[in-house]
Amino acid sequence: MVLDANWAVKWLTLCAQAMAEHRVELIELDRAIGDSDHGENMDRGFQAVLVKLGESTPETPGAALKMTAMTLMSKVGGAAGPLYGTAFLRAATALGDSAEIDPAAWAGALEAARDGIVARGKAESGDKTMVDAWTPAVDAARAAADGGSTDVLSVLVAAAEAAEAGAVATDPMVARKGRASYLGERSAGHRDPGAVSSALILRAAVGAAA
Amino acid sequence: MKKLINDPKSVVQEAVQGFGLAHAGLVTISEDPIYVTRKDAPVAGKVGLVSGGGSGHEPLHAGYVGQGMLDAAVPGAVFTSPTPDQILPATLAVNSGAGVVHIVKNYTGDVLNFETAAELAEAEGVSVRTVLVNDDVAVEDSLYTAGRRGVGGTVLVEKIAGAAAERGDSLDAVAAIGERVNANVRTMGVALSACTVPHAGTPSFDLAEDEIEIGIGIHGEPGRHRIPMENADSITNRLLEPVLADLKISSGDKVLLFVNGMGGTPLSELYIVYRRAVQVLGDAGATVERSLVGNYITALEMQGCSISVLRLDDELTELWDAPVHTPALRWGV
Hints:
Order of helices and strands of chain B: HEEEEHEHEHHEEEHEHEEHEE
Radius of gyration of chain A: 16 Å
Low-confidence stretches of chain B: none
Structural class of chain B: alpha/beta
Number of strands of chain B: 14
Low-confidence stretches of chain A: none
Distance between the termini of chain B: 41 Å
Strand content of chain B: 15-25%
Mean pLDDT of chain B: 95
Oligomer: heterodimer
Helix content of chain A: 55-70%
Largest sheet of chain B: 6 strands, mixed
Largest interface: A-B, 31 and 36 residues
Helix content of chain B: 25-40%
Structural class of chain A: mainly alpha
Strand content of chain A: under 5%
Number of helices of chain B: 8
């Protein structure tokens, strides 16, 4: 299994499918601690990505991610648009013109994405945001890649599982960034919708390689 | 959900189309991407004023496009900030060479998208200043939150900064006036019921029949706490107490009192609130010199209101009184 442009296109297609499938769930999570728009916005953004993929075929994974970044930034709105836009853009930059992604490159791309999210949103781990999904994912991918794994699928799986666990771990947290922060203590007991959509994206990356 | 809509996905587009048709003498609309500019934009030599945010707060922002107020408004999806690819062309369309001021409410999404658009505009050679509105005293400890939200005070910042731009103030001067208004205005809101976002189809939060939420923002999102329903005077006291404390209102202050409806509360009830607010301000030794009562920054059909108090000085009063001709606010012309 190699992660090439075909894989990237499949990944983004599965992302669009996941956002459509989980649209209502994300709206409900956001209704509890935000303003009910996250599922709608992510679905709208990735449907636009699908349209773009239908118009032209990217030649490298980096090109696919850059196109995704620009589309999400212009179609999603809210905080998620600039945050995911920045994440995909930084990942694209990290991957450069490479035709294929190896385990170390995948870990590097995730790290660049996470750093971009942190720089834009100024959130830290524990603030009950998407960073709480991304940071464990970066750590897990890095550990798997540094462990000498040449099996890129296992690195994708490690990242996705860590992101999912990270999303679950936001349940008891008190939000300190974004709209949920206005709820203070009352934000505890709800899962962060941004962390959940991040986990869906990283799970789709596994699906595209399986 | 019962709403006068055709399709939840086309609410903003169709609303803007209708708005353009209804006010064709005052505004021009762009449909792709969506933004609204004043008919005569760009006005030669004048600083451009652009604001925007999620739809669902009508008449904010498009209703304030016109002479003496905004040059452009950029509506996002319902309760979702607009995107940089809307904000940028709106900014370029109203730039006469004198620069553009962005008036941005302090919500994470609005801040991030306007920040990106401002960077892109600067890259195209347009000078942009940003006035961040954060008048909501409901957010108590901004150290652990995204900071105070921009709510009702936004209307006052847009009117007064708009008048400064209209009289020919420079880019920095217009931004400074906007910041001065923001520094002197505080707001607190209450929700009696939730609203329903068209694409969500269910109310944005659950509030029991006998409960009210004190310290809401303009999406119904909470700030302070939930309490049992009380009468209008008592709620008014609760809203004004932190506003006056935070503004440090003292004897002799002259103020503008703005009682704003959230969309689902009749004007008669807003006047009952206004009546009590004037009494409370009087007890604090302040004089209400100017007033505004009505639905100016709403949250769809949410029941409730917000009270804003702006401490006035002679210049702010003069700019407030200056002529304005927009779909939602008009006097002096």
